[in-house]
Amino acid sequence: MMERRRASVHSDPAQGEVSAIGWGGTLALFGGAALLLLLATEVLIPALAEWTGIEVVVAWFIVGGLAVFAPILVVGALLLRAERRGGRRGPDAPSLWRDRLRFRRMDRSDWLWALGGLAAIGVATGAIQGLLILFRGEVDLHPPFMAFEPLGPGRYWILAAWLPFWVVNILGEEVVWRGVVLPAQEHALGRAAWLANGAGWFLFHLAFGWELMLVLLPICLILPWIAQRTRNSWVAVILHGGLNGPAFVAVALGVVGG
User: Fold this and answer.
1) Which domain holds residue 51?
2) pLDDT value at position 8?
3) Cα(201)–Cα(205) distance, rounded to whole angstroms?
4) Could you tell me the CA-to-CA distances from 96 to 16, 84, 93, 175 in Å, in that order?
5) Radius of gyration of the chain (CA)
6) Is 102 within the bounds of a domain?
7) Which pTM does this prediction carry?
8) What total of structural domains would you count in the chain?
9) Cβ distance 255 to 142 under 8 Å?
10) Is 257 within the bounds of a domain?
């Protein structure tokens, strides 16, 4: 699935030695995560909700965090461990957070890319949703495991339960998909790495159903392209979190349909 290549040939020297992940490795990583998400949504979440009586969306927070995003983080950590086993040590060694995972301080250009990306994804997503409504009538874009009634008195605690899950979801995915995997894909695929990353991320959302997957297509392609262009994973976090978070809050408060 991976092979070791010297970063001096393929990327920033500061990153040190980084593994290469091609199309086969991409399919294995994202396909495995997609199967985890399918297992969680089709089996584990309904079982937990039925067994405990908690709302399905709360079961999603628990199962998604423990059975989907935690294993993804573990796989990312194992990839980094294998990669850095023979790497440099000492004060001159590359920074894992800054150099390898590309969580660098945002500059003016990064902010412009982030804001432009939010706008582009928003327009493209709205256009696809509009076309779906035009040709299919009203469509429900909320998977059963995320559907719930707007919050009211006595249920606002669900927002508090969602917040740590949201952090684990956004940071977990971006640390692994864009921090760990994307630079390794660049080693194997060069400029096409963003396309492999986006295709894999699109596959990861298989459990969401084809209509919602179509709506997610813009973020699945635009976000990795901008992340590769800026070489800054914080931009990806802003794009992912800036779209995901407000959308959930809007549904939770009944601003848009749930």
Assistant:
1) 18-85+107-252
2) 33
3) 7
4) 10, 9, 9, 11
5) 19
6) no
7) 0.90
8) 1
9) no
10) no
